[in-house]
Amino acid sequence: MRPERARTYQTEGIILNRRDWGEADRLITLFTPEYGKLRVVAVSARKPTTRKSGHLELFTRGRFVLARGRTFDKLTQAQTLDYFEGVRRDLARIGQAGMLCELVDRFFEEADAAPAVYDLLHNALLALNSGDPGDLVLLHFQMHLFDLVGYRPALHECVVCGEPVAPVAQFISVELGGVVCPTCRQRLREEEGAAAEQLVRPLSLNALKVLRFLQTAPWPRVRKLRLPDDVREEVRTLLELWATHHLERGLRSGRFLREVEAWYDAKKKP
Ligand SMILES: [Zn+2]
Hints:
GO biological process, one term: double-strand break repair
CATH topology of the largest domain: de novo design (two linked rop proteins)
Structural class: alpha+beta
Bound molecules: zinc ion
Largest sheet: 5 strands, mixed, barrel
Strand content: 15-25%
Number of strands: 8
Domain DNA replication/recombination mediator RecO N-terminal: 8-84
Protein name: DNA repair protein RecO
Order of helices and strands: EEEEEHHHHEEHHEHHHH
Function: Involved in DNA repair and RecF pathway recombination.
Radius of gyration: 21 Å
Keywords: DNA damage, DNA recombination, DNA repair
Number of helices: 10
């Protein structure tokens, strides 16, 4: 929670979102280690002469001074700590950083303090900035975000019968929260018919291994992973489905990333 008594307070934060507000103001969504997500107004931030505006770009990490207000607190000072220039030089990385921010924005209500998520986001931005593989940054981030918000996929025991998962192709269910073994899937199909097809989708053994690796391995090992295209696509689709199921709405930046990639692919073709 915000400090209740002080009229002004300071915090470090990462800018998750910003939009125009009124005539010349901006409404900024900040993610902070101590106070969680805060929505604050940057007065006159859209006037070109204002000194604040340069510090208020999306996914900038900064130090902010805020004054308590009736509806929204007001941003009175902003100082950039990290602009993540390496990210901003590359359209695909900008999209990936945007997706990190959107996921955090959507998974958190205002004022839910979550210092571990702040560190996760900060480290993912640092990895993107240093040129680490962006697709892996995103997959690793999602897997750990699900863990920290209580939606960790169960990958070692079948979520229906509880038996250990054998090293063969499996099934997985977003609704049921993890891997469903072939025996349980067969039984579900006999009992539920077509409804089971909706509920439980196939999961290749390679994708299962990658999911487990993402869940437990530290980033320096994950960043060296080389994924065949089909496995990466399977894992990516599944994690996007996992996020959207829990958020109940489509992620805009996921679509944006696919558009960027389609654009690059089209350019590559002779
Ligand atoms: Zn089972």
